[in-house]
Amino acid sequence: MTSSTSRKRTTADRNERVVHKHLRLGAPPTPRLHAVVSLSYPSTAQPASRSVPFQRPLPLISFSYNKNRELEFSDAAIRYYVEPPPGADLGYAYERWVHRPEEKGRLDGLLRAISEIRRRGTGDPVIGVISWRGVMTKILTAPYEDRDGWELNVMVENGTLYLEEFISDARLEEKDNMTPRQRIQTYYGYAFESWCTASQPDAPSGWGGDVDTNVQWCNVVKTKLGDVRIIIGGEVDCVRGILNDTMVELKTSMNISGHRDEARFEKKLLKFYFQSFLLGVPEIVVGFRTPGGQLKTMQSFKTLEIPRMVRGKPNAWDARICLTWGEDFLTWIKHTIILGGNASGSVWRVKFTPCTGVELTLLCEDERREVEAGEDRVGFLPQWYWKEMQECSGEPGNTSRIDSESGRQSAPTASSSLPTGWQI
Ligand code: A3P
Ligand code: MG
What we know:
Helix content: 25-40%
Distance between the termini: 36 Å
Radius of gyration: 22 Å
Number of strands: 18
Bound molecules: adenosine-3'-5'-diphosphate, magnesium ion
Structural class: alpha+beta
């Protein structure tokens, strides 16, 4: 299939079926250098074609970034939930905000965590996919995204698919140069986190300390989407009590007054839902605010109940469509790359265009160098990780295999002759 252009939904539906047929036969088109292979947008007008289960995420490890953005394997940056004061000012201490500059979407912290898990010997079998939660949320919510496109850098090494967000230098600059209005609106979200959290459990309500976006508490989980085993890492805002298994996501949103606001909020709930669902965060506390940043009301949502809450509403979405799409998307990328003759160290680019679909291309040498950005990397994987991975597989330079986990849509002839996957 060639590069997709804007199509009407009916045509997209037809194309989707064609692509699925390719997948079932285990023979997606083989991309030549710079050829573009595309996967069409799924239809949201019909129910999901099948039900794809999502395994309950199991925590593997947690880590913290300190004020100097140094990573340590501890819960030093964990925060505890406290009720915020009524009417809290979300613009409070704005001038003291320590703002971490925008970065490329590197996987380094997550790869350090995976390396640490291996070192501790608490590992698990083959990993199908490794990515940050933010990337997985973008992928899964794509069927309902009608505004913002995205691009990913992709590598497949020893059977594992690595996905990082591709943020060009121009886009990075754009993100760093927010308008004053965008800046303060972004700050409101962080200030809400500070009003709602403390560094100790059972602390009194109040300001939790000036915002420093370098500091983060992150969790890494393993899960399974259909047949695809995934390791996901992401920031967790806080926990209730002293047990880490009661994680809470904090979000802000504009006050709701009227049906239109309500419908807009229900649409936003799709992202709130997947962001938390993917890491196994069971509760989302939303602070509703005025345009000027005053906290008005609070509402707590049980993550797992959200899909049922929006069902049948004007802006309804169906999480099953997202999960089916997610499995198709991940399997399609991996199989296309592997069966397309992936050379070790190759970088691919996935481009998502709302209302159209996704395209996959192999990067040329210049583009690959742009991804490496003069850093000590092979593609976007850090050199230290690359070496560790080679030592672990014992077969340097080998191309990926198709994991048995994705056997439902795999080509049996391709899987038997290739080396075993990257294990932790
Ligand atoms: P809100 O989500 O309450 O608006 P997160 O909720 O994902 O933990 O992120 C915390 C806050 O970071 C957000 O609060 C928002 O202020 C800011 N933020 C996160 N992602 C952003 C994005 N893509 N653009 C602008 N601000 C963002
Ligand atoms: Mg949050």
